[in-house]
Specification:
Layout lengths: L3 H19 L12 H13 L5 H9 L12 H16 L18 H16 L13 E5 L6 H13 L3 E5 L5 H15 L9 E6 L11 E3 L2 E3 L7 E6 L20 E5 L1 H4 L7 E5 L5 E9 L3 E6 L3 E3 L4 E3 L4 E3 L5 E3 L2 E3 L4 E5 L9 E2 L5 E3 L1 E4 L14 E4 L4 E9 L2 E8 L5 E3 L5 E2 L12 H10 L5 E4 L5 H13 L6 E6 L2 H5 L1 H8 L5 E6 H8 L1 H17 L4 E4 L4 H6 L4 H10 L4 E4 L5 H16 L2 E2 L2 E2 L9
Parallel strand pairs: 1-2, 1-29, 2-3, 3-25, 6-7, 16-19, 25-26, 26-27, 27-28, 28-29
Antiparallel strand pairs: 4-14, 5-11, 6-10, 8-9, 8-12, 9-10, 12-13, 15-23, 16-22, 17-18, 20-21, 20-24, 21-22, 30-31
Helix pairs in contact: 1-2, 1-4, 6-7, 10-12, 13-14, 16-17
Length: 614
């Protein structure tokens, strides 16, 4: 039996909400080509500006549609609820509509059609408003060698069902990017317009990375008990023939390999022994197990460290070790250590110690991006290498930060060159579009279908790229904003309005840097909020970072990755990174997306027939 009192109080609340949402105090340009999407975005922000939990509970008790499913058509959903309640309460009487009421909100049908069209404009495929059709696109990041062997990998991925390829300008150079694009153009030559594979080009943005580390001579270690006592021996001209040794499932470390003089290699015999003495006068014996034209497999009876002073010798000949190279000095950090970070262009180095191993000068690393430290405060957190190294700023000079290590593995962690540095507590006021990005944009402009702005923080970043594209008459190129900072999340409404001033646009939830900047524990909430607000603006979303990464790299996914991939289906596109098993991963991802679409689309349960228990 209907609870009329509950219905009346619910109607009263809906009427108040209707007044708030439909009658905007902020005037909008009704002639704007994306007016309906901007209008709905504003109405969504009003809806979410207050706690509506009690109203949601009343709607649930009346078995009415949840406002949680209204984000793409807020005004239309509220108007529908208002009319349903009014008509039921007043015995079929239909409430009279205000003049031009239909111009003050977006209908559900219009919202679905708009979202579908915007997705089509960005990824191709087909325009579909049917809930039963699974249309989530798949994007794959191309590795540096993607165009090798006539673009074999690109052709293989295209046949596997990829809808878009991503070229990352943070790596390689213009000739490599163009070679990739040329292969994609070849693939597209036999496809109709709707099924052409799109080329998305990432502009690197102001990514802050660790600088170079000074080079030192590092001995080759052989015979480690932690890995294997096997090693490979090569003649100087045959190094390129190193056999595949790494097990992708166990990640077992490959045996060491040493390079010897060619005349010495020719004297080796199967089952013969080679004597060696390391820098600490430690003797060892190498036994030749297999002997081939291009390499020998051997074993060593104990662990030794080989440097340039070492000689290998048999009864007939001797040789130096030729593959002792200058390599970055290992900087191993432990929790509680001190690390200095500088904006000066200097080489990093490990901590300098006296003869008693006391630190007389802390380890040092440079930062690739100047002008950041002026915004950093003592007490701020810093993370390096995707959060593997955590730091706290304990001292500050003009171009030098003194930090204490707060996060590191128990056995220490190596600080390496070119690793990302994140400042989650610091508002870094710098434009997302660097001069290098502008140069790279010009280099790819004639083949890119979309350009992505890395570290987009506000609407001005969007307008900077729009201005560049307009100057070169390329308003047809789509713009994607990568959201990977707290500022980008906070400024999402203004970023979306700026994107809606462009014909084709989208948003990438770049969960790698975002997790570090916002905190891993906050990522789940943030990615949901970003999906919701983009849904309100009918703006397609790309779900990125570490999707099925273990499957991509090692052919064995984790259980958590499968669940993550299933949730990714609520976005309009899922992005995969590089990996040896990418083709198989595409097949698995397609199956997951198809399967989950029978259950969930966006925030709507589709209630298809459940056959698991039939």
């Amino acid at each position: 039996m209907l609870d009329k009192n509950l219905m009346q109080t619910t109607l009263d609340e809906i009427e108040k909400l209707r007044e708030e949402v439909v009658h905007l105090h902020e005037p909008l340009d009704a002639h704007h080509p994306r007016y309906k999407s901007i209008l709905n975005l504003k109405q969504y922000l009003i809806l979410r500006s207050k706690d509506r939990t009690e109203l949601q509970e009343k709607l649930f008790l009346l078995s009415l549609s949840s406002l949680g499913r209204s984000y793409a058509h807020v005004g239309g959903s509220i108007e529908t609820l208002y009319q349903q309640l009014y008509t039921t309460l007043y015995c079929g009487k239909i409430p009279s509509l205000e003049p031009q009421m239909e111009e003050k909100y977006l209908s559900i049908e219009e919202a679905i059609a708009l979202a579908s069209l915007n997705t089509y404009n960005l990824f191709g495929g087909k325009v579909s408003s049917k809930l039963s059709e699974q249309t989530t696109a798949i994007m794959v990041t191309l590795p540096s060698n993607a165009a090798d062997e006539g673009g074999k990998l690109i052709h293989e991925l295209a046949n596997a069902g990829v809808n878009a390829f991503r070229i990352n300008t943070a790596h390689d150079d213009a000739p490599v990017w163009r070679a990739m694009a040329d292969v994609i153009v070849q693939v597209n030559a036999t496809r109709n317009e709707a099924n052409k594979i799109k080329i998305f080009v990432d502009l690197a943005g102001p990514k802050i990375r660790t600088g170079s580390i000074r080079k030192v001579e590092i001995p080759v270690t052989v015979g480690s008990n932690k890995t294997t006592k096997e090693l490979y021996i090569f003649a100087s001209s045959d190094m390129k023939t190193l056999p595949e040794q790494t097990d992708p499932l166990t990640l077992k470390t490959e045996p060491a390999h040493i390079v010897v003089e060619k005349k010495f290699y020719k004297k080796l015999k199967k089952n013969a022994t080679v004597k060696v003495k390391d820098g600490k006068k430690k003797k060892a014996t190498i036994t030749i197990l297999e002997l081939h034209n291009d390499y020998a497999r051997a074993s060593i009876d104990k662990k030794v460290h080989l440097d340039k002073s070492i000689k290998l010798y048999t009864d007939e000949a001797e040789s130096a070790i030729l593959n002792i190279e200058m390599q970055p000095e290992p900087i191993r950090l432990f929790q509680g250590d001190i690390l200095n970070i500088t904006e000066e262009d200097v080489l990093g180095h490990a901590a300098i110690r006296d003869k008693d191993m006391n630190v007389i000068e802390p380890a040092l690393i440079s930062s690739s991006f100047s002008g950041v430290f002026e915004h950093v405060k003592v007490g701020d957190r810093i993370f390096i290498d995707d959060g593997k190294i955590g730091l706290e700023v304990i001292g500050k000079k003009e171009k030098l930060l003194t930090c204490r290590v707060t996060r590191a593995k128990v056995k220490g962690i190596l600080l390496k060159e070119g690793k990302g540095i994140n400042f989650p507590d610091t508002i870094i006021k710098t434009a997302a579009l660097t001069q290098a990005d502008k140069t790279n944009a010009l280099a790819v402009m004639d083949f890119a279908d979309a350009l992505s702005i890395s570290f987009c923080q506000n609407a001005e970043d969007v307008r900077d790229l729009q201005k560049l594209l307009k100057e070169h008459s390329r308003e047809d190129i789509a713009i994607v904003t990568k959201i990977e900072t707290k500022a980008g999340v906070v400024n999402m409404p203004e970023i979306l309005v700026a994107l809606l001033n462009w014909q084709k646009s989208g948003v990438m939830i770049a969960r790698g840097d975002l997790a570090i900047e916002a905190g891993f524990e906050n990522l789940a909430h943030m990615q949901e909020a970003l999906l919701d607000i983009c849904n309100a603006a009918h703006t397609p979303v790309i779900w990125a970072t570490q999707v099925l990464e273990s499957l991509m790299k090692y052919d064995l996914p984790s259980r958590a990755e499968i669940t993550d991939a299933a949730m990714a289906g609520r976005a309009e596109c899922v992005m995969l990174n590089k990996g040896a098993f990418v083709t198989d991963t595409i097949s698995v991802l397609t199956h997951i997306l198809d399967d989950m679409h029978q259950v969930l689309m966006k925030n709507r349960q589709l209630l298809s027939k459940e056959s698991l228990w039939q």
